[in-house]
Amino acid sequence: MIDPFKAIEILTAAENRRAARRGFLKAAGGGAVLLGGASLLSACKEDENYPPTATPTPSPTPTPTSTAVTDNDVLNLALNLEYLEAQFYLYAVGGTGLTAALTASGSGTAGGTVTGGAKVDFSGDPVVGAYAREIAADELAHVVFLRNVLGSAAIAMPNINIDGGANGAFTAAARAAGVIGATDTFNPYSSPENFLLGAFIFEDVGVTAYKGAAPLLSNKTYLEAAAGILAAESYHAGIVRTVLYAKGMSTTSLITATTKISDARDLLDGTPANDDVRGIGSDDDQGLVGSGNTANLVPANVNGLAYSRNSQQVHNIVYLNATGANRTGGGFFPNGTNNPNPSLRVGLS
């Protein structure tokens, strides 16, 4: 068995680079591939325009119509993400996904298709299996709840890709991040450990998405409900990160993989100006090992706050495509997310 302390020391050099970046955080006075390859990430960094600057940058083509964001728009944004998470977890624990009745729109339009998905054999790790079943039940409940709140305004599920095959979104993501080789396959359904890595991809993004969307809600009842879902997603993320950290004590490749995933997501979502009071920052995605060989189970800023992502940042990640001006689909959502408001279904340009 590998000495866990020695294993973590091996990862310290990479974390020190991240710690140095975090050192620049200053307390504020007021309020297709998921992870991208090296060239893809460079393009993202050179091309990003968040926050806006005085230098004009290309607009998405076609340019979305400027439309006021309503509470229903925000809830439908959340529903898109819940469809994705629910399908992944339900397939992992039972081999089947959402029923057709739970993927159709509130007005009856049929939902999209799901590519991939399979049952995970948790017999060798019943603890992870128990966690997976609980999370799956929560994600299913989130879908049902949001659809009930939205009623006829609920959007239909878009086409979703959760395939673990050679041409699937998970494999493309893992290859680009350097988690696997250029010709290798990453199947999140092949083992409890791979399942955890697949869950790691989604959970941290969901937490930051809900937190970022909270200020857009005007109805306090909806805001409290969204806070409740955010809390549940935070518990999920914490469970996944904790189990991966514990397993990483003897299987260091798991910690290495999560570091690569978090680093790549961090680059894909741009470099917003730091706001330590609101929980916005350029280093909003962190691995499982902190400076000084300590655990980093909560990716928080200097004030201990979880980070926020806006809709465009979230789409940059889930679309698995950070290049080009027209970021309207790809990756886990091959044809884009469904939302009546065009400003809430595009990525950063």
From TrEMBL:
Annotated Pro residues bias: 53-63
Pfam families: Ferritin_2
Domain of life: Bacteria
InterPro entries referenced in this protein's UniProt entry, alphabetically: Pigment-catalase-like (IPR052965)
Residues covered by region (Disordered): 46-67, 329-349
Protein name as catalogued: Ferritin-like domain-containing protein
Naturally occurring in which organism (per UniProt): Sphingomonas palmae
